Amino acid sequence: MLGFGVTTVMVAVEFLEVGLSTLTKAAINKGMSDFVFIVYTNAFAASFILLPSTLLYYRKRSRPLLTVSIVSRIFLLGLIGCCVQTFMITGIGFSSPTLSSAITNLTPAFTFILAIISRMEKLNLKLQSSLAKSIGTMVSIAGALTVTLFKGPEVVTTSSPYNLRDEILLAHTNWLIGGLLLTAGSFSLSLLYIVQTSIVKDYPEELMVTFICCVFVTLQSAILALILEGDPNAWRLKPGMELMAILYSAVFAVALRTLVHTWACHKKGPVYVSMFKPLGIVIAMVMGVTFLGDTLYVGSVVGAVIIAFGFYSVMWGQTREEKMADYEGMDSLRPSSPKIPLLQNSSMEA
Questions:
Q1: What CA–CA distance (Å, rounded) separates 79 from 100?
Q2: pTM of the predicted model, to two decimals?
Q3: Which candidate among 163, 235, 318, 319 keeps its CA 20 to 30 Å from the CA of 246?
Q4: Considering only CA atoms, which of 301, 273, 257 is closest in space to residue 137?
């Protein structure tokens, strides 16, 4: 039941993330500063969401002691998180949400490699579970590339200005810069999952880790914005699209998403969390056709099916490993003698 609950929450978060990049792009197009946006988003999330939640949660329960080592690692986590947000938001500004959804699908591959290097994942191709996770990761990436690079004949044809807008944005000369920034953001996100997992293993307080990390990101991004943003008017909040983007990002991206990802990394590990990224492009495709009138192509359908197979393969491998771990744990609790129970043996000696 825990596995199903984590999966459901992760899928829900991916649905919420689909609208974030589009809303952010719209706000940037209206003149919002990328760097100031990150500062306000994290400050709002830390002050009005995470701080009250943390005080309420620990009101009647004791909080484990924070050591210098844990705080230092959370500071590093915040620095990586600041890089992720800066690369991603600036990359979307140079390119488009479509390119962002496509390149983010590199995250599972980066995470899988980093998890093996850091020994969070064991690569034993003789085991079916490990082989399934390895193949599933590669298959999901192949599906994401199929959706991105191959169109094919039209399946559902609708007229929408969003298709033309995305094509113009992708054809713009800045797409290369945007792509490089988004790739750096995807790698940083994979590194964040690894560091996140190592921290919550030693300090299993997801809410506290999320709050402290958000405070560090606010301070770090504020220093970066003061250095790189030379226009004082950029700090003025404007009602409308800009304020809406900041509130949405603060609630769903910084507070809820970070908390859920920290919790899921603790329960399932970094590779499991990263595997939900390819689902984002499938969700964006379905919502685009349903609500925005986008055209559905054969390549999108084929790619979505491939991603589904890859995702299922990784989930199967993860479930099988958990069952094996539970079985080994139960086996270790059995008495050493299969014929005479320990309690019975003691009574016989008495």
A1: 21
A2: 0.78
A3: 163
A4: 273
